[in-house]
Protein 1
Amino acid sequence: MILLRVLGFSLLLTLFFTLVANLLPQVEGDAPKATKVDLSSLTPEKYAAIGDTIFHGKGTCTLCHNERGRAPNIAVLNLADETKKALADANYQGNATDIESYIHESMLKPSAYVVPGFGKKGAPNVSPMPTISKPPIALSAIEINAVIAYLQAKDGNDITVPLPSADAAPAVADNSGGSGDAPAIAATAEEALNKYGCTACHTILDSEADTGPNLKKVGPTLSEEFIRKSIIYPNADITKGYEADIMPDDFAEQMNVKELEMIVKFIRAGGKK
Amino acid sequence: MMKSRELPAGEINKMIRVSSISGPSSSTAKGRDIRFAGSRFGWHKLPWKKLSLHVGLVAILMLAIPLFVAISEPGSTPVLASSDWSGVTQAVAAEAVTPAATPAATTDTAAGDAASKELIPAPQPEAKDYPNIGVSSRSVVWIVAQLHLYFGAFVLAVPIFVLLIEWIGVKTGDSRYEAMAHEFMKISATAYAITSLLGGTLAFALFLLYPDFMGYMMRVFGSQTLVYAALFFSESIVVYLYYYSWDALRYGNAKWAHLTLGLLVNVVGLTLMVMSNAWATFMMAPSGVNEVGAVTGNIWQILKGPLWNALNLHRFIANIAFGGAVVGAYAAYRFLSSKTPEEKAHYDWMGYTANFIAILSFLPLPFAGYYLMAEVYAYSQTMGITAMGGILAWLFIVQAVLIGAILLAGNYYLWSGMSRTEGSERYQGYIKYIAFVLVTSFLVWITPHTLILSPAEIRLLGGANHHILGVFGIMPAKNIAVNLMLIFTFLSFQLFRRADKVAVVSWERAGNALMVTIYAVAVFNVVFAGVYYGYFTNTLYKVGSSVMQVASTLTVIISGIILDTYLYKGARILPSHWGKVTNRSQYALFALPVAFTWLMALMGYVRSSVRTHWHVNNIMRDNSPDNFIPAIGYAGNMMTIVTILFIAMVLFVFWVSTLSEKKQLPPESSGQEVGQ
């Protein structure tokens, strides 16, 4: 009898723990799968889109390059300006001459230049960033160029990296385990607003939600810079009557630069095309 | 005048004496109350000569084993400085496309002896190279490995505190400690055979299901595996010698010989543990090999990976907590099955001691875990973030539930146990406040930061994070909660220990005032550091502030133990009624091992999953069909299966242990009895 009671009690407790585990979001971590890319139809834009996927996936760049301060938040920085600053810095120890070579060098020799404040603890001129071409990330030369293409394109700069030749037949890893196609970038501002769920909280398009400010109303009164900042840093300025920490603060990671600009302009225009 | 239920000290001592206790030196005859032996220690009375002999023996063993390991590695490779690796690496990497029997690297860049050593890269098996037995290979290995780990942890941990309890018995002359240590060892010795069987099954399963991986591991660790086997053989001998010679080597110098055997059990056991830990840490953070997995270092460099020491410390402490919890369940099981007050008193005391061991070892465990994770981050930020901030982050909610369950069960047992002593009413009033802090902290701890929500749910919630609860979802709030839970658990523990004592030192008031001040400052530090640095400064300070919080908590624990040792020196002891505890409290002693068991499985899942799709991180890729990180729900189901199997096996061990105490009467005598 005691044995049964003890077993029953233990079983109930175990099942409770199991229940908690099953109530949580169920996410599997797939191993990267090599996928072939059709190089004959590859354009610089598609190449940049592949770079976007790698930047947010296999490259694991956003684990550190985000708004949490572990590494420079690349999403909100214009790398053309950052390159100029770095190359002019007395601490710069690399051989880069332009944006492409600077980004390339940053990925392969991260300590050639460490942005002030982002060095290792006790060794400010040593970067904590791993060498991207080596394990665990181990991007191939073609994947590294794709990331450079993406980083150039996101700021509206020219893509200068060469497209891979058809002979190379690269296998590009994709963390999502998908087909390896370029990620779907919203074609219009309306599509982007729906894609990122803006309508859930704001009055915009057909929505009349009031969790956040009415964008149709306040949009025309704000500058583009202010709207951009409010999307990237939602807590920087809180409109009177609304609370902080409600809007997700990771849109800078999620949005493509083109999408962000489309949304900013759309809101600035009062929700009109 | 005594109350009707109160028994005089002599009677109490009789109550806890059971049939297995024998020998003239039982302190029960001296009229001692049951208490912590620590409060009566006189360090100057210790047999230092004998102790120094033991320490010397341990030192020799500790030196001899690594020396043997080093010598046994044929042609130990000179250490290659990291700067020397590049040439060799490139040479091997270039040939890694044909991994089978790559000839020795003879490049001019490979300097010295390294150039002449054959450098064979790790194999890279394809999906088709993994044997298919019709069920998930990973699941089979998962179950067997986890069960082996449970039993391994148990049989390695129990002798640690058994030796300590036996030594306390010798020092105090109280044979109750002796009897308890012997009984603990009986369970451990019974479980030892199951551990060996599971170890053998695990080895077979690994060689059958992951032949390429195991071939590589054998190549890397070489003859160290034979040293492990030899040590395992030695451990078997000393464990059984230690257990079976208990009564044969009981008094005088023979007792010291027996204690030495106990020491040997622990030295060999701990060596086994750290050696097998090296296999796990090599898979997570390989060392002594180059970038394609070719062995370039000697066995010591392979063993001593960047995570080795941190894992050794973490597992050492965790094993003791786990072992204490399991023997606590044994005591609870025997308590509930007891028919006589004497038996109940004995097993109540045993359960109390086991809980004491489990909770005291558990308190520093989060800090050892913190050290391990800090080492993981130092080794690879990507690995650290995968564990703490990636898809595995959700399981820390389950971890919070489990640790919360452990702390609540441990506290509940302490509160229930206070009712045994007549002085406990002085402290009963504090329990409700402690319970409030524990439950509130627990709720903060399990509050998730973000949830995967649909747009409608976001609208309903008012954003991705709740406007009030969102504040509790981030790490600073959790750090405050965890540290407060630990501080207040220690408070329960301290009150419990004080319940049967009345201090007689002249500085009692000052001592208590100091203790209260330490608690107040620590709680203020924990809350201030968490709130100010957690919410109002940048990330760098946020991480740094946790050190201040941990230091505050540890200060409370250490100063509390030291202060009470002196404050209650020669204290007046109030009567304790062992065996007069509620049956309900015993279920707390079952909750502990169940939660511990589940927690160990959960942490094993994290530790293993941070390798993502690698058998050996960054060196040997896992291309099997199971090379993905399973979702927490699936993992939870696996953990439950393993936990239930373990509980069933442990109950079998308990049952087998009690079988030796039963004796069937001869047929004629029972016939006579019937006839009469």
Protein 2
Amino acid sequence: MPAYYLEALTVTLGIALLMAEAFIPSKTKGWVGIAGAIGLAGILGLTCLAIGPEAKPTADWANWSLWNFYTFDSLARFYKIFALVCTLLVLLMGVDYRKILARFTDHPGSEAGTGEYHALPVFACAGMMWLASARDLAGAFVALELVTITFYILVSYMRRNVGSLEAGVKYLILGALSTGFLVYGIAWIYGSAGTMSLPLIGTILLDPAACIYYQTNLTPLLFGVALVMVGLGFKVGAVPMQMWIPDVYQGAPTPTTAFLSVGSKAAGFILMIRFLEPFLASPVTRGPVLALLVVLACATLLFGNLAAIAQTNFKRLLAYSSIAHAGFLLLALATWQAGDAQLNAPKVVSFYLATYLLMTLGVFFVLAQVRIQRDGENIADFNGLGTTNPRLALALTVLLAALAGVPLTAGFIGKFFVFYLAVEAHLWWAVGIATIAAGAGFYYYFKVIRAMWWMPPTDSTPVSLPPISTGCIAVLTAAVLLIGIWPQPIWSLLRCVNPPRVVTQVILD
Amino acid sequence: MLALIVLLPLAAFLAILLGAPARLTSIGAAALNLALALYAATSWHCTCWAFSVPVLAKPAINLAFGFPDGMSVVMVLLTAIVTLAAVLSGKAPQGREALYYGSSLLLSGGALGAFAATDMFFFYAFHELALIPTFLMIGILGRGNRRAAAWKITIYLGLGSIVLLAGLVWLAALSGTFDMGKMVAAAGSIDPAAQKGIAGLLIVGFGTLISLFPFHSWAAPAYASAPAPIAMLHAGVLKKFGLYGLLRLAIPLVPEGLQGWLNPLLFLLLGNILWVGYVTVSQKRLDLLLGNSSVMHMGYIFLAVAALIAFPENPLARSAAIVLMFAHGISIALLFGLADRIERSTGSIDLEDLGGLAKSAPAMAFMFGIAAMASIGLPGLANFAGEVLVFLSAFKSYNGTSGLAPVQIACILSIWGVVISAVYMLRAYRNIFQGPSSALTASAPDISLADRIPALLLIIVLFAVGLYPNLLLNLLK
């Protein structure tokens, strides 16, 4: 089965869900989310059947010019699986979040008009899957906009909630701004390199004649790269393009926040890997691009972690935590030259994102239930969870400890790889800053653990978990522990990822 | 085989989580583990104890356990003994049995894993696993100002661990492997400048975990607040992880780097012995007194480490440190267990409130007396063997003609610590057990039969090692 069927099927699923939601009379809309999740699970199963043109060069479709825009390597497969799993879990989270959603839409208390909320993430998923395969800046841009525009709707979905509306406006304006930067940057790159195809840019940058040209005319190209990085920096939350994140995360409906912080960030990072690959491969551009990455990583690590210390709202805390993790991921990218075939920057970024998915979505599942039942998202609303719900508190403790990077959890292995590569790349300053960042992270995640176990409960009725949330939290917590001791399940998905090309010298005639 | 010893407490923890009877399960697991550890001590040379499963190809990390030398055996034995005593002697608050016993098992499993691991990754990871329940239990079930104490230990040890991790990763990056055996085999290849940096990180990181002066202020309030089994396990066993790490990794791998830190280290360990010693004398509560005394005694073990740094060819110092680690672990666990018993029977732990308890509780007075004597270092008890060996090892290269080396001056000063510990321990004993009875002690019940078993277990070990130290020294040959 050619790989592009996956995106086609996902979009079809989304349209089918929208139509079914519109025409099937039903008071509750939870089934839309469940049907979507089942559909996505089916597509997830099909990813192992999907093949690219390399696997079957004789087929008709293998010679289509589509493959100039679209690739299906193991990195693409990994991020497609990532997008599908993430969306599936977000849909399930949305099913349990219906009550809050219904309270803030046009007919308070009724679920009429909330159906699209469960169908739209499927479209964003299609966009992320396409991004995973993009090898042309034009195609990547269209896919990224599919993701972003879907998020404009999802973020401000709770129309009668001021916070959600504020978040929607902020996200819309800053999203549009970042799109502007992105397009402008692509234009400069096109003007300077004459193509928008990333493999072709790679060839040009390694061509001796072109390199002589670029020795004196590099500025326009680098300017374009910097502008595109500004645009992508908005998506992943790199400092100084992070200022929208706390407000938008806090205001958006919790499942959307989870989707933003995992799905959207991963989409940004796969695009960053694909986009930077030609520039990091060539000795002409590598130096400045790596310097840019190191500076971004250090700023993001410091700001995200230090600003998180003072937070009292848990959702806002998670927003800063997502900035902090973006810092670690950027640091991993900045070690591009250090790795080898077994352990290298693209693999480590992907592995880190996978562990980040498990931990963050698990925490958001708990947060969504606390939001519904305690009607608050402050750290103080978790007070005494250890007495009223010991097992839930234990699960959240594991997840938060993993986010903090405590050993024997998935989060530690991710951070460990990043530190290992950074040491191999001799980025000593960045290692020092990352150590401070990890120390700060330890402090603010344990603030929540402290609230759960040490503080007396303000509300002695236990938080009761619906079955879907219970199952998801249990599976995610178990996975965090398992990956922490035995990372092979994720690692084997990344086994065939090609090591990054690092050409040290272009031979000149 | 060794994996079984590590996994047994963790499996018992899972069983308790799923609803098995907490007290019975934990006692059963701890007793079985002690039997296994004793068996291991008799046959540790056998390769059948080693265990290894690959976890990652690059960097090569294995979930590997084994006994590289007798030091691991002694530490595993210490953990198994103290664990059994801890689960036997605690009394869980109503309805919190699962939490109380479960966390003790988790702590024990983590400590065993750290002492048995031969891969640095898991050496570090298992120690962290043991720290988390310590923090949580002090905050949940502690006494007095538990939240402040728990938050303080969390922050101190959390940051200490991160500094330690930085040092360990640096060490691994330079040695190119995480296998501690291979690292030690390739020792000497690390350049001296890097050694100095690594040694500094390791001293601060491990030092925080061991409560080295001036990173010690978390220890006394935490132990005073902690529930009895947690105080016993942390002060008795887990705190020794730092010393174990210094002996296992720092001394063989970065000897030249440590040389540069020798004089500062001597000052700090004198801070432990003299400064904290005087602080201990002024304590008015038994739990704070014991907490501070445990910080103070770390100074002696550091003295042995310093002697080993100063004179690398000094097998005596290494044995001294290990014997004293073992002895201190057993005696401090016994003291914390008995302090808990005193509080349960009289309702107070304030030295001012108590007095004359020996009349109403003679057995308790006898046992506490032995523990106090052990802590002072009376001959015949295990601590004496350790402390004498430490003092001897510091004078290893002294021949009467050359002047005194810094280590020897520090040793002479630290002998004063023996007097200090006699002062506070005997004073505490007099205030609690002798003199006129107070309202609280007049009708206090004596120690019950069930509570005598763990105390007797620890006392027997103290006497056995004290009278025949070769029990341990033979393992260390």
